[in-house]
Amino acid sequence: MSDLSISKKGLSMIAGFESFAPKAYYCPAGVLTIGYGHTGTNVQGQALQESDTVTQEQAMQLLNEDILWAEKAVNKQSLELSQNQFDALVSFVFNVGANAFAHSTLLKKLKAGDFEGAADEFLRWNKAGGKVLRGLTVRRETERKLFLAPS
């Protein structure tokens, strides 16, 4: 089984959920952020500064690099996935984290071959701080729809 990579469609979906910020800003957690949720460094690889800016093209390149760990976390599970299923899972993992995915009922159902049940598990991950968030609900519905779509 060969490792998959995010498709252009999948990357575009994630970018849409992350939203684009051309100028560095502090996120609600107090972390300096730019582009599509990128932190740490600017496009030159130096420490991110409040004065830094990016183009959408540069931000997409950073997102492409940032998403590698999520691709790796999904590929690590050695699942037989379609491109759409992989893209949906990478979006999910990029948002919730590799550890949460590794211990999720969603992954348990996937490993058991219950793809319909796994798809329904996306919808359970729509809360932050114990509260349902509209943005997360929409993201999970979109991921579920992509996961179930024929490739």
TrEMBL record:
- Mind listing the GO molecular function terms for this protein? lysozyme activity
Domain of life where this protein originates: Bacteria
- EC number(s) for this protein? 3.2.1.17
Q: What class of enzyme is it?
A: hydrolase
Instruction: Spell out the InterPro entries in the cross-references.
Output: Bacteriophage_GH24, Endolysin_autolysin, Endolysin_T4_type, Glyco_hydro_24, Lysozyme-like_dom_sf, Lysozyme_dom_sf
Pfam families per UniProt: Phage_lysozyme
Q: Which UniProt keywords are given for this protein, alphabetically ordered?
A: Antimicrobial, Bacteriolytic enzyme, Glycosidase, Host cytoplasm, Hydrolase
Catalysis performed (reactions): Hydrolysis of (1->4)-beta-linkages between N-acetylmuramic acid and N-acetyl-D-glucosamine residues in a peptidoglycan and between N-acetyl-D-glucosamine residues in chitodextrins
Keyword Hydrolase attached: yes
The organism's taxonomy opens as: Bacteria, Pseudomonadati, Pseudomonadota, Gammaproteobacteria, Aeromonadales
Which PANTHER family does the record match to this protein? Answer: LYSOZYME RRRD-RELATED, PTHR38107
Task: For this entry, list what GO says about its biological process.
Answer: cell wall macromolecule catabolic process; defense response to bacterium; killing of cells of another organism; peptidoglycan catabolic process
Q: Which family does it belong to?
A: Belongs to the glycosyl hydrolase 24 family.
Asked if the keyword Hydrolase belongs to this entry, the reply reads yes
Would you tell me the protein name for this molecule?
Lysozyme
